[in-house]
Amino acid sequence: MGREMVRLLKLLELVGAFVLRRLDDLGTIVLLYRDTMRELGHKPRLRHILAQMSHLGVDSLLIVSLTLLFTGVVMTLQTADILIRFGAQGTIGGIISIAIGRELGPVLVGVVCAGRVGAAITAEISTMKVTEQIDALRVMAVSPVNYLIVPRMIACMIVVPILTVFGDIIGVIGGWFVAVYYNGISSYLFMNSIHKFTEVFDITGGVIKAVFFGNVIAVLGCYYGLHSPDGAEGVGKATTKTVVSSIIVIFILNAVLTFVLY
To answer: What is the pLDDT of residues 94-112, one digit of tens each?
Structure first.
């Protein structure tokens, strides 16, 4: 009985320590977010924002295109035969466009950017921390938040929605190609289905989600970069934490926003 009690107490201690660490991380992230919002009141450096947009966005175009293209292809392969069997081939285009516009587009782009963009942000900032470049900014009376975080956050909140719209188009094109050239559905029927069933908010709602996802990716990437352990191993650990945390938060936030928006 005594050993079981000791094991239970150790388990509770481990759980409590884990919860306290997560709450401490959450509090620090909230404070960082507050400081970032304050710095937005100052004029951001447009040159830095454009540089980050180019670095984070353009380099992600290929992987976003491939991800959404084959998502549209697979979705159509899985749904078209069943819908044709029930005589509902006139709904295929609408189903594909709504599913990609509302959910798959923003979520998959968010996950891709968490792995590509979030990891890049963390690796860059954590390397600057390890090499004491961030301390040098403070010595020169330059705010690290204004210089490093604000441009990346604004860039992500612009780039991720743009990538989402681009990915939506590529995904629908993939679905159209399979529906027309594999399932034998007329191009007019597919496009008319999109026009008939898809509303503007199906797309804009996904774009709104993407803005939030970009914000999350930037804030978490910067947070783990600024608080990375010293050394090369610390950079790797911080990058891994950014990717995992961003993906988890994106899925949770997507569920919440779906309830709110739709």
So the answer is: 999 999 999 999 999 999 9
pLDDT digits (tens, 9 = 90+) for 34-78: 877 777 767 767 788 888 888 788 888 899 999 999 999 999 998
Chain-centre distance of CA 176, in angstroms?
26
Q: Which two structure tokens, joined as six digits, stand for 209?
A: 């989600």
Q: What is the DSSP letter of 220?
A: H
Q: What is the pLDDT at residue 9? A: 76
14 pLDDT above the threshold of 60: yes
Question: 33 by DSSP, 3-state: which?
Answer: helix
Domain edges within the chain: 1-39, 45-261
What pLDDT does residue 132 have?
A: 80
Per the CB < 8 A criterion, the answer to whether 115 and 214 are in contact is no
Q: How many CB atoms lie within 10 A of CB 75?
A: 20
Task: Judge contact between 215 and 115, C-beta under 8 A.
Answer: no
User: 223: buried, middle or exposed (CB in 10 Å: 19+, 13-18, 0-12)?
Assistant: buried
Task: Specify the 3-state DSSP secondary structure of 113.
Answer: helix
Instruction: Find the helix or strand (DSSP H, E) in which 252 lies.
Output: helix 232-261
pTM attached to this predicted model: 0.88
b/e sequence 21-50, b meaning 16+ C-beta within 10 Å: eeeebeeebeebbeebeebeeeebeeebbe
